[in-house]
Amino acid sequence: MADLFPSELAVINLGLPAFGQDIARQGAAVSSPEWRPPAGGDPATVAALTRMLAWPEAKRQRVAEANREAGKRLVAAQPVAVAVGRALDLVPGMTRKHVLHAGPPLTWERMCGPVRGAVIGGLLFEGLAKTREEAEKLAASGEITFDPCHHHQAVGPMAGIVTASMPVWEIENRAFGNKAYCTLNEGLGKVLRYGAFSQEVIDRLAWMRDELGPALQAAMKSHGPLDMRTLIAQALQMGDEGHNRNRAATSLVIRALGPHLVESDLPKAVVAKVLRFIDGNDHFFLNLSMPSSKAATDAIADIPWSTLIATQARNGTDFGIRLAGLPGRWFTGPATMVDGLYLPGFKAEDAAPDIGDSVITETAGIGGFAMAAAPAIVRFVGGSASDALRFTQQMYEITETENSAYAIPALDFRGTPTGIDVRKVVEKGILPVVNTGIAHKEPGIGMVGAGLVKPPVSAYRNALQAFVETYADK
Fold first, then answer.
1. DSSP labels for 123-142?
2. Which residues fall within 8 angstroms of residue 314, CB to CB, at 6 or more apart?
3. What are the C-alpha distances in Å from 265 to residues 197, 207, 219, 254, 269?
4. What is the DSSP string of 342-359?
5. Which residue among 56, 60, 187, 331 has its CA within the 20 to 30 Å range from the CA of 107?
6. Residue 109 and residue 120: Cα distance in Å, rounded?
């Protein structure tokens, strides 16, 4: 043995930790780097990655060029709020018998409790039903068309329900000319998006339709377009991350629109109520950051050969993604449970699975991907300030580029990680980090907490495998 090892033995252990521990007990120096098999060792996904590696250089270069183009479009996006109006008037393809929902396609029979509750509330609000029982019967009758918000250039938080009379924001991506839409934010607690449909919920929706929407429309007409890119960039400097912490951004909106509300011809009492409502709703800006992110990601919805993710969404039943290089195709896995903090009186057993289109913020490079800019978010979703930094730093490993417009002070003003590459997600086993609210599993109750959630890896693996099959012979 002395002849075999004339000098002191140094070992790199890539196996089980116990292997290295046994050698260390013999006095040898052992280094145990973190190592895991590609794609978690999943045979079908490893085979897909291997096939891609074996593609000719010219073919692999087409993927790289497509991803660079997609990354450039995400960074170049210029979302601007241009109007507020009725969904029926603004949202493409909207009709009085449409009910839009969050996430991938879904039928009434497969809807989770919060989505069912929000559908009931939406039908009651529109006057299409007078009671819960009538609403449930109508929803199951086939007379109502259920579509994902994403199929109508829209997004919706949590249940994501959009009906014809609801006021919506209209966001235009000035860099590429596409538009996106989202309802106005109701606040927290018992609200429609969490599945509540009591009379107070319906009354609030009616006030938003009759007073809040028209007031914001008047203020927007007086102010002119609101530059969302600038507002989000400022908010990141002020402790927001654009998904679950929007206190600074909401304040910036009040500063921008407040004078125009005061100077309008609206009754003083209406203006006061509108300003108080926005001031008391720190999540008001969420329904602006979401369509701003949607407007950015829709610009990469159809880029052949790109492996970047153009859409992520969930509906409490399924989590789904769409790739830039496979336009229109959903790849889904079961919606997972959120690990988080609960409001007094609620516990994990009360929670519905992950739900909502708000993960579009992470898809565009803010939200959970910008948690390093918002250490205070951990008081809402759990974890520590160091976790917030770690999450953002980890996301650089699965993204194509960085958005210098969205700079993070705690990272020496490094741009947020932007452009999720499905190859990197499955190869490295690093899932996109998402922070989110938690809805009660039963319809009609509402919000019960907030936290962090891990999407189902199967959606990403299935998307990669489909991409390889699609482009294998091209």
1. HHHTTS-SSHHHHHHHHHHT
2. 102, 103, 104, 320, 335, 353, 354, 355, 356, 357, 359, 455
3. 33, 18, 10, 18, 11
4. E-TT--GGGBPPPEESTT
5. 187
6. 14
DSSP element (H, E) containing 415: strand 414-420
72, 211 Cβ separation under 8 angstroms: no
Domains plus CATH for the chain? 10-35 (no CATH), 49-59+300-471 (3.90.1700.10), 78-292 (3.90.1710.10)
Distances (CA, A) of 428 to 35, 74, 395, 422, 457: 10, 23, 11, 10, 11
Which amino acid, residue 395?
A: M
* Token pair recorded at residue 187: 């606040």
- CA-nearest of 276, 292, 171 to 240 is 292
Which pair of tokens denotes residue 247? 């206190």
- pLDDT tens per residue across all 474 residues of the chain: 556 556 677 778 776 777 777 777 877 787 777 667 788 888 999 999 999 999 999 999 999 999 999 999 999 999 999 999 999 999 999 999 999 999 999 999 999 999 999 999 999 999 999 999 999 999 999 999 999 999 999 999 999 999 999 999 999 999 999 999 999 999 988 899 999 999 999 999 999 999 999 999 999 999 999 999 999 999 999 999 999 999 999 999 999 999 999 999 999 999 999 999 999 999 999 999 999 999 999 999 999 999 999 999 999 999 999 999 999 999 999 999 999 889 899 999 999 999 999 999 999 999 999 999 999 888 778 778 899 999 999 999 999 999 999 999 999 999 999 999 999 999 999 999 998 888 899 887 878 888 889 999 999 999 999 999 999 998
Query: What is the Cα–Cα distance from 290 to 364, expressed in whole angstroms?
Result: 9
CA–CA gap between residue 463 and residue 35 (Å, rounded): 24
Q: Any alpha helices (H) in 193-332, and if so which ranges?
A: 199-207, 213-223, 228-237, 247-262, 268-279, 286-297
**pTM score, two decimals?**
0.92
DSSP string, 444-465: T--EEEEEEEPPPHHHHHHHHH
- Measure CA 29 to chain center: 46
